[in-house]
Amino acid sequence: MDNKFKQKLIGQLNDKETEMNEAEFLSNLEADILPLQQFITYYKCAIMEIETKFRVLNEQFSINSESNPIEFIQSRIKSYGSIYRKLMAKELPRTLSSIEENISDIAGIRVVCSFVQDIYRLANCFLQQDDITLIEKKDYICNPKANGYRSLHLIVAVPIFLENEKRMVKAEVQLRTIAMDFWASLEHKLRYKKGLPQETLDLVTDDLKKCADQSAEWDMRMQNIKNLIEQ
Hints:
The chain is an alpha+beta fold. The protein has a single domain (3-230), classed as Beta Polymerase, domain 2 (2-Layer Sandwich). It has six helices and five strands; from the N terminus they run αβααβαβββαα. α5 (178-191) packs antiparallel against α6 (198-230). The longest helix has 61 residues, at 3-63.
């Protein structure tokens, strides 16, 4: 066999083997990634469904010649790292089914309202909708956390309609006033300050709690003013 022809044939075989290896690699990669991407898409769809429901309620109140109760809406999907750490902390299997069954806040929606009464009014209207299933409710407004954190948390399941199926997807909805959100956002940044001595940490914790209580007082006073105006 001619040497040039032999080298050409070997080169073609090597190219074929490389193509096959690349194809196999890409196939395996897609097999791992696509189910995860599809899984996360379910939660993105749940966020869109829930956001739409709150925007419709906000628009309805506006049409009824009332002030819009919602200042703004934020949403997020929990990062892969956060999901992994939560599984590890709970000693749960690292599978999609385990994530779906045991983690309720992969999809998070924060609804920031003008007044405390708006929170409960919106929550009641939202939960009355027949396609919303309430799984858990935590009222940190009536019962604040020890550090002063205040918010109304709802774990719900909402249906999303796909090409060939309907799926119920869990999400966490947090409803807060502007003052509650302001405090929580700054507290979150300050809380992760590292290397502080215990004495400083104690002082910071005490001051943050006082700020939370003052924020709650502002909310109460603003609500009272609103009630007085509307009488």
